[in-house]
């Protein structure tokens, strides 16, 4: 009796929790989407750019796992070019985000110039290491 | 034009390099029949008692100079050039050699590439023992000891004394003993010796039977004999590192007409031979000792990359190389192609990286092809050929091997195309992103 009474409400509670978790996740996503839609387009462009770099890197790692490490220098430069691009993109995003008070003294133009310079150096190295 | 003349000079130099050992040795490849042999005897009676043996040498074109070992005018050389190409010492009794000859002079004679035939008997003097000992052969020093065999002694018209033995324990080598093979037992009376175990160059040609021992005739054996059994050698040869050849026999009578002509029967055996094996044995072994057999030379040592003909100054790793050389054997009259399937080439740097057996075309041209290993450094092409009874071939040619140059690697590797693509796509993405980022709205 005692166990039954305990069990029944708990199973009810559990299925209720399942439903509420799914609903919570849904709420979370819709909240994130509505919050993200308020993000300035400029930052969204950077996000696309960063995600593009990460996906390209991932494809190369998968390719390397299938084909082997043979031209290892080419693999390293291919992957590092993507990772480096993404990291520099993230850095640019931090610096041009108006909500980030840490870089309020740094103009977006200056941030972009830094970004361009860093990319030039990165790609110079990549070109030399590629083959 | 310049390169062809320099390759000519190289060829000449290489020829001289390989011909140099030949020029230094007594053996003259062009006119081997002109060889001068000094025969030293105790007693000029040996001229007649050993005439068949000496005649066999004269018949093959040797100039014999028979002299008494005590002749005060004896000399092997004057002003640094030797008068003789080979020395036959049939003088076991001589205490001190005449002229300026002594054990050291005979060692020098051998060291400069000349051949020596030495025979002893039970009266052998210390001088002769010293000469043999210098060659790595030690006669039994027990006083008046001779080889005695109570089981395999010889039954001959000369008597059936147990110190006259019929030996048939021969080395199995056609190059040393000739291709016919010696079927008859060999009559032997004289000293036993041992080839110094530290000597790598001495070879026992005729060994005693397991029942033989070295002792005094008619005396009771009180002590263990110094030498006995099959470890006791009767006739042995030495081929020195300079390819000088030495034959040492404990029996001078082995070469005598009497022994050559005698019929022989080994005790315990029913086979009776009309003629002993002595003549064949002595003549064949002398042919070997005087370089009528088993003397090899190399020629046309050459290596090149496959697809080219010139000898490169350097190889690159992964090159395909071809090495070839000619090997000829002297047959007493002219040079014949040498045929063997066990000549090996080493591509050597501290240890052999490549070890290949050379193929040959049956005309004395040996060759092999191999890929240079993936290790760079200073290598050698090495041919080391040591076979029983043959002259030692020892060739080494230094050759450097270099790694790939920076521009010898493959430029575009198909497997790396996705990486190239990714790198360039990020650059384009950066360019497009820059424009979009700057100009949106």
Automatic annotation (TrEMBL), chain A:
The regions listed as transmembrane in this protein's record are 46-66, 72-92, 112-130
Tell me if Transmembrane helix is a UniProt keyword of this record.
yes
A GO BP entry is: protein N-linked glycosylation
For this protein, the record's Pfam families field holds: DAD (PF02109)
Q: What is its main location?
A: endoplasmic reticulum
Its membrane topology:
Multi-pass membrane protein
Listed under GO cellular component are: oligosaccharyltransferase complex
**Source species, domain of life:** Eukaryota
Q: Print the keywords alphabetically.
A: Apoptosis, Endoplasmic reticulum, Membrane, Transmembrane, Transmembrane helix
The record, for InterPro entries, names: DAD/Ost2 (IPR003038)
Name its pathway.
Answer: Protein modification; protein glycosylation
Compartment(s) = Endoplasmic reticulum membrane
Claim: Protease is one of the keywords in the record: no
Q: Tell me, what does this protein do in biology? A: Subunit of the oligosaccharyl transferase (OST) complex that catalyzes the initial transfer of a defined glycan (Glc(3)Man(9)GlcNAc(2) in eukaryotes) from the lipid carrier dolichol-pyrophosphate to an asparagine residue within an Asn-X-Ser/Thr consensus motif in nascent polypeptide chains, the first step in protein N-glycosylation. N-glycosylation occurs cotranslationally and the complex associates with the Sec61 complex at the channel-forming translocon complex that mediates protein translocation across the endoplasmic reticulum (ER). All subunits are required for a maximal enzyme activity.
Q: Could you describe the subunit structure of this protein?
A: Component of the oligosaccharyltransferase (OST) complex.
Q: Which family does it belong to?
A: Belongs to the DAD/OST2 family.
This one is known as Dolichyl-diphosphooligosaccharide--protein glycosyltransferase subunit DAD1
From TrEMBL, chain B:
Residue intervals of the OST48 middle domain:
303-441
> Pathway it acts in?
Protein modification; protein glycosylation
Q: How does it assemble?
A: Component of the oligosaccharyltransferase (OST) complex.
Q: Name one GO biological process term.
A: protein N-linked glycosylation via asparagine
Q: Which gene encodes it?
A: LOC112276933
Give the source species: Physcomitrium patens (Spreading-leaved earth moss)
From the Swiss-Prot or TrEMBL record, state where the protein is found. Answer: Endoplasmic reticulum membrane; Membrane
Check the UniProt entry and state the signal peptide residues, or none. 1-26
The UniProt keyword set, sorted, is:
Endoplasmic reticulum, Membrane, Signal, Transmembrane, Transmembrane helix
Primary localization? endoplasmic reticulum
Q: Recite the lineage of the species.
A: Eukaryota, Viridiplantae, Streptophyta, Embryophyta, Bryophyta
Name-wise, this protein is Dolichyl-diphosphooligosaccharide--protein glycosyltransferase 48 kDa subunit
One Pfam family assigned to this protein is: OST48_MD
């Amino acid at each position: 009796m005692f166990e039954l009474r305990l069990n029944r409400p708990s199973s009810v509670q559990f299925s209720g929790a399942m439903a509420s978790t799914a609903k919570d996740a849904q709420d979370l996503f819709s909240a994130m989407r509505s919050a993200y839609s308020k993000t300035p387009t400029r930052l969204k462009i950077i996000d696309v750019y960063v995600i593009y770099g990460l996906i390209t890197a991932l494809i190369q790692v998968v390719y390397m796992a299938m084909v082997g490490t043979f031209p290892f220098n080419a693999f390293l430069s291919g992957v590092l070019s993507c990772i480096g691009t993404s990291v520099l993109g993230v850095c640019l995003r931090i610096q041009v985000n108006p909500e980030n008070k840490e870089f309020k003294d740094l103009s977006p133009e200056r941030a972009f110039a830094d970004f361009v310079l860093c990319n030039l150096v990165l790609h110079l190295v990549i070109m030399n290491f590629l083959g | 034009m310049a390169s062809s003349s320099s390759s000519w000079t190289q060829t000449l130099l290489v020829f001289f390099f390989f011909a140099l050992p030949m020029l230094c040795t007594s053996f003259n490849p062009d006119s081997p029949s002109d060889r001068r042999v000094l025969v030293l005897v105790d007693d000029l009676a040996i001229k007649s008692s050993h005439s068949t043996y000496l005649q066999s040498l004269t018949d093959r074109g040797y100039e014999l100079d028979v002299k008494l070992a005590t002749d005060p005018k004896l000399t092997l050389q004057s002003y640094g050039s030797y008068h003789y190409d080979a020395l036959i010492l049939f003088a076991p009794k001589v205490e001190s050699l005449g002229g300026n000859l002594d054990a050291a002079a005979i060692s020098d004679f051998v060291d400069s590439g000349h051949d020596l035939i030495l025979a002893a008997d039970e009266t052998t003097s210390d001088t002769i023992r010293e000469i043999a000992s210098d060659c790595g052969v030690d006669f039994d020093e027990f006083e008046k000891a001779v080889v005695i065999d109570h089981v395999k002694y010889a039954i001959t018209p000369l008597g059936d004394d147990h110190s006259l033995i019929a030996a048939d324990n021969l080395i199995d080598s056609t190059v040393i003993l000739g291709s016919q093979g010696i079927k008859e037992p060999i009559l032997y009376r004289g000293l036993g010796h041992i080839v110094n175990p530290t000597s790598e160059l001495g070879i026992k040609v005729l060994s005693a039977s397991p029942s033989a021992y070295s002792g005094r005739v008619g005396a009771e054996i009180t002590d263990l004999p110094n030498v006995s059994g099959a470890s006791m050698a009767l006739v042995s040869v030495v081929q020195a590192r300079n390819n000088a050849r030495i034959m040492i026999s404990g029996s001078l009578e082995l070469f005598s007409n009497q022994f050559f002509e005698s019929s022989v029967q080994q005790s315990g055996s029913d086979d009776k031979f009309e003629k002993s094996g002595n003549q064949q044995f002595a003549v064949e072994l002398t042919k070997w000792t005087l370089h009528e057999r088993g003397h090899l030379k190399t020629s046309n040592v050459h290596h090149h990359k496959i697809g080219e003909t010139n000898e490169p100054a350097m190889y690159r790793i992964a090159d395909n190389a071809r090495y070839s050389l000619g090997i000829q054997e002297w047959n007493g009259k002219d040079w014949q192609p040498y045929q063997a399937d066990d000549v090996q080439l080493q591509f050597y740097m501290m240890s052999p990286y490549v070890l290949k057996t050379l193929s040959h075309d049956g005309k004395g041209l040996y060759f092999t092809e191999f890929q240079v290993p993936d290790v760079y450094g200073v290598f050698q092409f090495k041919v080391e050929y040591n076979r029983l009874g043959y002259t030692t071939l020892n060739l080494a040619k230094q050759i450097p091997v270099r790694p790939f140059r920076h521009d010898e690697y493959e430029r575009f590797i198909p497997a790396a195309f996705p990486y190239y693509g990714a790198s360039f796509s990020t650059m384009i993405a950066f360019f497009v992103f820059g424009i979009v980022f700057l100009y949106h709205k």
